[in-house]
Amino acid sequence: MNDLRLAILGFGNAGQAFARLLSDKEDEIRRLYGRGVRVTAIVTRSKGTIVDASGIDIDKACDDLEVHGHFADNTPGLCRKEAFDVLAEAEYDAVCELTPLNIFTGQPAIDHIRMAFSRGKHVISANKGPIAWAFDELSALAAEKGCMFFYETTVMDGTPVFNLVEHTLKLCRITKVSGILNSTTNYILEELAAGKDYEDILAAGKKLGFIEADPSMDIDGYDAAAKVTALLNVLMHAHLTPDQVERKGIGNITAQDIKDAADRGKVIKLLCEGSLQPDGNVSACVKPVEVDKGDMLSAIDSTTSVVSITTDLMGKLSVIEHEPEIEQTAYGIFGDVLRVLEGEI
């Protein structure tokens, strides 16, 4: 059987970590599936594009970026093609959509996926935008074209939330999804509670690498809204977009608010929630809430995340992801690639 040919759109930290993992597991993949995974295209915005049907040396590509910040000039297949050119022309069986998130539209990732499906190619997305903004359309298109569409990494990195429901909660009806899904706000609230200054917290988080240069998308609740929308669209067929989520961030939460809550035996957390309503629709919100210090949510600290799923047959289940690193994100992508391999057997 021929190798699975893979095109990678976006090659930042997660893409490079995924490529390293793919290289490390190459022999095991071949033993288990009787075929390998061959990367035939890597597209970046500023570091160059490589298109090589015979297979890209992904270790060298990663090394070049680490040392030089761009692909070496002598790299076979190095070119200036953009994502849509590669999607239309390159030889690949599946595409990994790893481009940066546009939280307000999901583009151009949505159009990337549309084009891949139009060519009958499978899609693995780590970009939550398409799942939050166009999940129904893209799922229907995948089914129409006979393509696989996986997106485990879009929420909580590689934690198998979607797989858990799909494979182990068959015929369960999900009535509510809730959780703490944004690590930046969780960290800020925790540090404020420890008495630290807001600006110092932001500076320290940026230095550690998990607070963006512009943290407003996190602080104002946009990232959390996109994540809960993705969860609800997949798990509850909610047919929502992020602008339909009632959203309130933590920008107005002060150290005094946190102290007052503590005096009441409470902790403030930015909670995401979606619930099935009597009319059959799903409502969703993101907002700061006070939770009891004895509640499980109060113990979700630093960059840890949690999602809780309430069902009619199995009650309430919770999955916690403890302080993930980039390797967890890489594994989420890797796991979806393995699902494509399995689906083609």
Q: Please, how many helices?
A: 14
CATH class of the largest domain: Alpha Beta
Helix content: 40-55%
Find the CATH superfamily of the largest domain.
NAD(P)-binding Rossmann-like Domain
- Mean pLDDT, to the nearest integer, reads 95
SSE ordering: EHHEEHEHEHEHHEHEHHHHEHEEEEH
Structural class computed from helices and strand pairing: alpha/beta
Q: What is the number of independent domains?
A: 2
Strand content: 15-25%
Under the CATH scheme, the architecture of the largest domain is: 3-Layer(aba) Sandwich
- The termini sit apart by 9 Å
What order do the strands of the largest sheet run in, or round the barrel if closed? 4-3-2-1-5-6-7
CATH topology value of the largest domain: Rossmann fold
Low-confidence stretches: none
Task: Give a brief outline of the structure.
This protein is an alpha/beta fold. The protein has 14 helices and 13 strands. Helix 5 (109-118) links the parallel strand 5 (94-97) and strand 6.
Describe this structure as you would to a colleague:
- This protein is of the alpha/beta class and 345 residues long.
- It has two domains: 4-158 and 326-343, NAD(P)-binding Rossmann-like Domain (Rossmann fold), CATH 3.40.50; 167-321, Dihydrodipicolinate Reductase, domain 2.
- Helices cover 41% and strands 21% of the residues.
- The chain has helices at 13-24, 26-33, 58-68, 83-89, 109-118, 128-133, 135-145, 161-168, 183-193, 198-208, 216-219, 222-236, 255-263, 326-343, and strands spanning 4-9, 37-43, 49-51, 78-79, 94-97, 122-125, 149-150, 174-180, 246-247, 266-276, 282-292, 305-311, 315-321.
- The termini are close together.
